[in-house]
TrEMBL record:
Gene3D superfamilies named in the record: Alpha-ketoglutarate-dependent dioxygenase AlkB-like
The protein, known as: Alpha-ketoglutarate-dependent dioxygenase AlkB
Domain of life according to the entry: Bacteria
UniProt xrefs under InterPro entries: AlkB-like, AlkB-like_sf, ALKBH3, Oxoglu/Fe-dep_dioxygenase_dom
Cofactor: Fe(2+)
Pfam families referenced in this protein's UniProt entry, alphabetically: 2OG-FeII_Oxy_2
Annotated GO MF terms: catalytic activity, acting on DNA; demethylase activity; dioxygenase activity; hydrolase activity; metal ion binding; oxidoreductase activity, acting on paired donors, with incorporation or reduction of molecular oxygen
Amino acid sequence: MFFPNLFPKIPDARVEYHEDFYAFAKAEHLKNTLLEEVPWRQNKIKIFGKEYDEPRLTQLYGDEGISYGYSGIDFAALPWSETMKSIKIDVEKVAKMTFNICLVNLYRDGKDSNGWHADNEKELGENPVIASVSLGQERFFHLRHNHNKEWRFKFQLHHGSLLIMAGQTQHTYKHQIAKTARKIEPRINLTFRKVVM
Ligand SMILES: O=C(O)CCC(=O)C(=O)O
Ligand SMILES: [Fe+2]
């Protein structure tokens, strides 16, 4: 795969950013439709034996029969809605590959977040490609290298943008969406993935 839009330049990773993947009006329409139509769920996470609400709402869409899990949470995927199907087709054109699941996140406000992690579940194969569409409130996306402390990056994910992480990225870096004290609007993020086993 060739990466023409490496922004910013991140060593030891493959990260491609398409800021204007969706024009403003289209991005607004998709955000409002998904806010309404997705049956958002509140997952519980266990930390040292105690249960907490995950700091965001989520849902999983995917091809029939595919299930996917992380941090001990197992989802059965919902069938693709018309909206989700159309976004998947648009993403696949740019990524030049197909995806069979999409994990959808709703960050309701600045208290919602996604802690440091890598999307390296074994179902995603050796070098997972994660194609991530952002709608609504811009939030900072952080990347930090697992060994070199100087390789830390932080950039805004714009309304209507597409970020693709590929190659070794899930082995060499962790990423997060941090909390913020600013008073902000909701953000939807869709991460398309390919379960290969
Ligand atoms: O919200 C984002 O931009 C990132 C989401 C993410 O990292 C994930 O769902 O694995
Ligand atoms: Fe992730």
